[in-house]
Amino acid sequence: MIRNILVAAIALAALSAGPQAQAQSGASDANWQFRCPAAGTVVEPSNGAALRFRGEDTSQPGSCMMSGNQARLMGYWRVSEGFYRAAGPRLAGAFANGVNLASARPIEFSYFGTSLTFDSIVLDERWTAEAGGSVTTPAGTFNTVRVDRYFVVRGSAFQFTESVWFDRATNVPVRAVVDHRNFIQAPSLVNWVANEITRPQTASR
Q1: What are phi and psi of 68, to 5 degrees?
Q2: Pairing of strands 70-73, 99-100
C-alpha cells in the first residue's frame, strides 16, 4: 500500500510540474514548450550569419525579436516568408503552448505562391516536432528537440526537408540540415552548426 501511495505521489508531481521544469527534465520527458532565448543571447553558426536574440515578440508568443528589429518564428524562420502569412500564428501558438513530442500531430497547411516564371502555384507544408537526442557541435553538447519542415510545390519535383535542432534548456537553435531534392535552392536553406553561443551576463550583487 505504501508503494502505491509513493507511485501515485510521483505521478502527481510529474503532472503538476511547470513547463520550465518539464523542458529541462531530459530526453525522457516528452513535453516541450518553446520560449524565446534570453535577450542578449547570440548564436554564431558555421555559415557566419549570427542570430542575436532581443526577447519575445509580445504581439505573437512563439516568435522572437532579433537584431535589426526583425521578428522570427521560434527565433529562426523569417516571418516575411509566405508560410508565415498562411500559418505563422498557428505554428507559433502550437509550440508556445507546448507539445507532447511523443504524440504531437503534424501541422499541415497549403497556400498560394508565384513561380520563377510568375505562374500561380500551390505550396504544401507539414511541420513536425520530436525528441532530437544529444547533438554535439563546436559550441558544446545539447539535449535537443528537432523540428522538421517538409515543403513541396504541388505537382512538381521541387521539395525540401529542413530540420532544425533546438537546445531544450535554452531553446536556441544549434544545428540545421536541409535535404533539398532539386537543382534550385533558396539562399536561406543552408546546413550549419553552432560554433559558439554567448549568453547574457547576470548582474552581480
Answers
A1: 80, 10
A2: unpaired
Average pLDDT of every residue of the chain: 84
pLDDT tens-place string over residues 117-137 = 889 999 999 999 999 999 999
Of 89, 19, 13, 74, the closest CA to residue 43 belongs to 74
DSSP the chain: -HHHHHHHHHHHHHHH--HHHHHTS-TT--EE---PPPTT-EEEETTS--EEEEEE-TTSTTEEEEGGGEEEETTTEETTSHHHHHHHHHHHHHHHH-EETTTPPPEEEEEEEE-TTS-EEEEEEEEEEEEEEEEEETTEEEEEEEEEEEEEETTSS-EEEEEEEEETTT--EEEEEEEE-SS---TT---EEEEEEE-PPPPP-
DSSP 174: E
pLDDT digits over 66-80, tens only? Answer: 999 999 999 999 999
Confidence of residue 188 (pLDDT cuts 50, 70, 90): confident
* Grid cell digits, residue 73: 518564428
Mean pLDDT of 80-99: 93
